[in-house]
Write a structure and sequence with these properties.
By secondary structure, this protein is of the alpha/beta class. It contains seven helices and seven strands; from the N terminus they run ααββαβαβαβαββα. It has a single domain, classed as Glutaredoxin (3-Layer(aba) Sandwich). It has a seven-stranded mixed sheet with strand order 2-1-5-4-3-6-7. Strand 3, helix 4 and strand 4 form a beta-alpha-beta unit. The longest helix is centred in the middle third of the chain and has 16 residues.
Length: 160
Amino acid sequence: MRIFLFLIALLTLNSCAVFQPKSFNKEALDEKLVTTERDSITLRTVLTNNKGAKQFVQIFATYCPVSQDSFDNVAALQKENPSIKYVFLSVDHSYFDWKRGLENLSIKGQHYYIPKKGKGKLGAFLNLKTIPRFMIIDEKGDIKLFKSSKVSNKIKNKIK
């Protein structure tokens, strides 16, 4: 009987495991993004261009009050960690709304617009339901932190 209960407990705990991928799938990497100059670029290209450096990725929207509140913490993180590459992916309603919203941001880094917002292959891979969303990617391009909703000690520890 104890073994049976142990197995049930083990199966229950195992089924509660959170999806934490270590790398992006092909479909997410091939998702088209738009640069501030309105050029098309894939997520794969963005990550490849930053390979060899740790990357901080934020998915946000310029109109979102919670995203706006997070920018002060991101700016402070940038001051503490200037060697990290900062990638910002926006799910704004339109390219023009995004560009207008960027004018008021105090954060510096690589900014891209996701035309499919959270409905494309990248949004599906990320299981993107809320913003802001933060990720840490290591020098080899592997995902070290898949999901965080705020700049926290968890993020700071993954950066070091």
